[in-house]
Amino acid sequence: MSKCLVALVLLLLLPIQTSAEAIRWQSYQEGLKKAKAENRKIFLNFHADW
User: Fold this and answer.
1) Residue 31, C-beta contacts closer than 8 angstroms, at least 6 positions apart
2) pTM
3) Are the C-beta atoms of residues 32 and 42 closer than 8 Å to each other?
4) Which of 10, 22, 36, 39 is at a distance of 20 to 30 A from 50, taking alpha carbons?
5) Distance between CA 24 and CA 43 in Å, rounded?
6) pLDDT attached to residue 15
7) Is 23 in a helix, a strand, or coil?
């Protein structure tokens, strides 16, 4: 019974994952300009390998 339930949940989630839109990375200046034009917030992601 539990295997059937897990399989059903996975099958129901499959269309959600395949229809996800890819991330469109932009430069800081491009993103800031677009966010201001659309009155939206921006997300900055910083990363370092120290």
Assistant:
1) 42
2) 0.46
3) yes
4) 22
5) 12
6) 63
7) coil
d(CA 19, CA 12): 13
For residue 41, what pLDDT is reported? Answer: 92
Q: pLDDT tens for residues 1-50?
A: 688 888 887 777 766 555 557 778 888 899 999 999 999 998 888 889 99
Q: Where are the beta strands (DSSP E) in the chain?
A: none
What are the angstrom distances between the C-alpha of 39 and each of 16, 19, 21? Answer: 28, 26, 21
Helices (H) and strands (E) in the chain, counts: 2, 0
